[in-house]
Every structure is written in structure tokens, then in C-alpha cells.
Amino acid sequence: MAAEQSDAIVLRIHPWSETSLIAHMLTRQFGKISVLAKGARRPKGPFEAALDLLSICRVVFIPKASDALDILTEAKLQKRFRAGSSNLLRLYAGYYLAELLDRGLDRSVESHSAQLHSAQEQVELFDFCVDTLRLLDDPEHDVGTLVLRFEMQFLRLTGLMPTLTHCAACGDEIAARTDSTQRESWSVFSASAGGVLCRRCRGAGRNTIRLQDNAIMSLRRFATFDWRSIDTSAPISSDRAAIRAVVQKYLTYQLDRKLQLHSYLEELGR
Ligand SMILES: [Zn+2]
To answer: What are the residues whose beta carbon lies below 5 Å from ligand 1 (ion)?
Structure first.
């Protein structure tokens, strides 16, 4: 098969043999791939230092049949992930991005429900991730805001967005108000129901989380198609603990597994 070329982000690397390793990568044009990098563990291997976690590189690989690993033939480093050298929370946020993409896009192969539906979404997800890694490296941008933006955009681009404007059970519109004179200024969220529940349905939801209306407004805002318009310099102002709980519970439910990095990011809920 002919070799393909793409920009890629390294999501995970693990040894395969004494001299080779396997790398999982998100490519700009081909979605997630798993490649065998022969000789990568040799001191002067053919890929130099390109195969580091979260490195952005230009790769050339030979696609194989669906059940075999693709073969990596070239990897040229473009940008290394440096955010972690200055701040542990930013390092964890980067690792989390890698874990969510690696685990989250895995699931699509099995169930076909979490997948990128078009080539355009693939490119958008890649560009969005490159942008997120860049901003994580810049102390002007808030880590908690970047993480929530990443989670909501991942859900949007993979078609897994929870219902935030209508009741997940009956479909009635949820009128979230930020006006504090309202008697009822909170709703409940149910991961298993798939989103927010209205007043009538909230009693039937199991394992619900109480969410202030301004937190629902934040979630809606971060789900926008126009992610470049989200202000990432300001921290999330409201109900941070509930927002973290809602997103983590929902992702755990959707992906059918607990992501390891969630417990490293608890600080974001304080
Ligand atoms: Zn309802």
C-alpha cells in the first residue's frame, strides 16, 4: 500500500520489543492510528526525539489491513509539549487530553456511536487539539477553562453531546435562568438519562447531580461550534465542583470506563 503523510499528535507510546515501540496518534487527515515504530528504542533510532507524549510531528506511515498495525516510516518533530515543565496541573491537563482522545476514540471502533462523522470534523478536532496544547503552555490561559472547553468540544465533535437545552426524558425546554430572583435556579443532570432533567422528570432520574442554572449556561456556552470565541483567559466562575462532577460522570458513563487522569484534576473543581 502507498505511504500516507499527515500531521499527528502522539497520544500514547508503549514498548513492543527491545528496539521497537507502538505509538497511538491522532492524525489530522486519518483520525486515530496505531503505528509500529521499528528501531524507535535504539539510541540513534530513525525517529530521533519525535515520538514523545503529546509531541506534534509530521509522519509518514504505511497503512495495513484493519487488523494489523500501520508501519511508521518517518516522524519529524514539529513541536514538543512543554507546558508540564512549569506547572504540574498543566502537565496533567495535557495527559488528560491524550487519555481522552486515546480511550475515547477507541470506543468508536467498537460501538460506532462515538465517532468523527466527516473528514472535516477530523481536521477540526486535530486543529482544536493543537490549539489547546498551545494554550496550555501559556499561563495567560486558565487550565480549568481549557479542560472544560476540550471536554465539551470532544463531546460535540464525536456526537456525544448531552442534552442541555431540553429535558433528556420528556423533551420539554429547560429554561435556565441566570436571574437570581427566580425561585428555582437549579436543575438536575443525569448521566444515564443523557442530560438535564426538567422539574417534572427530575424525581425519576437516578444518580442525579444538582446544577445551578448558571452552570448549565456555562456548559451550553462551551459546547458552541465557534470554539475560538470562548474566552480561555478567565476561570469558570460558577459551580465548578458540580460542573466537574457532571462532565466526569457523563464521560465515564459514555466511555464505559473511568479515565485515570480525572482524579489528578480534582483541583479544578475547587
Ligand atoms: Zn422532563
So the answer is: 167, 169-170, 172, 198, 201
